Amino acid sequence: MLHEGNHPSFDKLFLKTIIAITREPDCLPIRSEVPDGLRKRPLASPDQEFSLNCRKETPGERAFVAAMWFFFVIFLVDAAHSESLVQPLECRLQKLRTLMKDHQIQAYIVPSTDDHKTEFVPAPEKRREFISGFTGSTGNAVVTTTEALLWTDSRYYLQALRELPPSWKLVTMENSSSIDEWLQKNMKKGDAVAVDPKKMLAGTFKEYSSTLNNSGISFIAMEDNLIDRIWTDRPTYNEGNIFIHALEFAGEPYERKLQRLRKKMRDLKSDLLVAAKLDEIAWLLNLRGHDGEHTPTFVSYVVVRNRSATLYTDTNKVPPEVVDHLRKPGAEVEVSPYDNFWSDWKKDVQTHKKIFVPESANYQIYSRVPADKMIFKKSPLLDMKALKNPVEVSASRRAHIKDAVALCKLYYQMEREVPDGAHWDEIKATEILAFYRSQQKDNLGSSFPSIVAYGKNGASPHYIPTPETNLTIGTSAPVTLDTGGQYLDGTIDTTRVWHFGTPTPFQKQVYTALLQGVADLATTVFPQGSPAKLFDFVIRRPLLKLGLTFGHGTTHGTGLFLEVHEDYNGTFFENFIGSQEPGYYKRDDFGMRLENLVVVVPSAVQNDDNRDRLMTFSPLTLVPYESKLIDRELMDQSQVNWVNNYHNDVRKLVGDEMIKQRLHILYKWLIEKTNPI
Question: What start-end ranges are recorded for coiled-coil regions in this protein (predicted)?
Answer without folding.
Answer: none
